[in-house]
């Protein structure tokens, strides 16, 4: 098992980038999104008032270096509660595939348990990609996503701990 072979360090550049740890900035971002929903939640920004209801345009979100994916889980929860999950796509990317499988997927299951979400709709709404996300933006066959170059909302809360990482993220 890959997890058993990991060193006790929080990260080993190029091998393990810390995705199994819940870092405080992702918790801070979720708190902010919860407090400032009108500003921080992407479908609220794109909502258009109509005479009968609020219509939303399809929204695409990207969480880079997602680890446990707390912001992505929060977006999916809120989209489901607002009945706009069918028009919401969340792409999560983490350097390590096992982090997506062991941490992110488990977190999705736990966070969605209280909601009555169709598993097929959930699978259509969430895409996962592993590896260096800079390369993923060139080759989007890894995610099954239509266009990795067009997102309404991008979070990179756990990624800016090196100059190189900050420079690559700035290109996005």
Strand order of the largest sheet: 5-4-3-6
Sheet bearing the most strands, described? 4 strands, parallel
H-E string:
HHHEEEHEHHEHEH
Radius of gyration: 16 Å
Broad shape: globular
Features:
single chain, alpha/beta, Rossmann fold, two-stranded antiparallel ribbon, 6 strands, globular
Overview of this protein structure:
With 172 residues, the chain is an alpha/beta fold. It has one domain: Rossmann fold (3-Layer(aba) Sandwich). It is 40% helix and 15% strand. The protein has eight helices and six strands; from the N terminus they run H-H-H-E-E-E-H-E-H-H-E-H-E-H. A four-stranded parallel β-sheet has the order 5-4-3-6. Strand 3 (59-64), helix 4 and strand 4 (88-94) form a beta-alpha-beta unit. The N and C termini lie far apart (33 Å).
Record the SSE blueprint.
Blueprint: H1 24-35, H2 37-40, H3 42-46, E1 48-49, E2 54-55, E3 59-64, H4 70-81, E4 88-94, H5 97-112, H6 119-125, E5 126-130, H7 133-136, E6 153-155, H8 163-171
Parallel strand pairs: 3-4, 3-6, 4-5
Antiparallel strand pairs: 1-2
Helix pairs in contact: 4-5
Give me a quick take on this structure.
It is found in: Cytoplasm; Nucleus. The chain has 172 residues and is α/β, with parallel strands linked by helices. 40% of the residues lie in helices and 15% in strands.
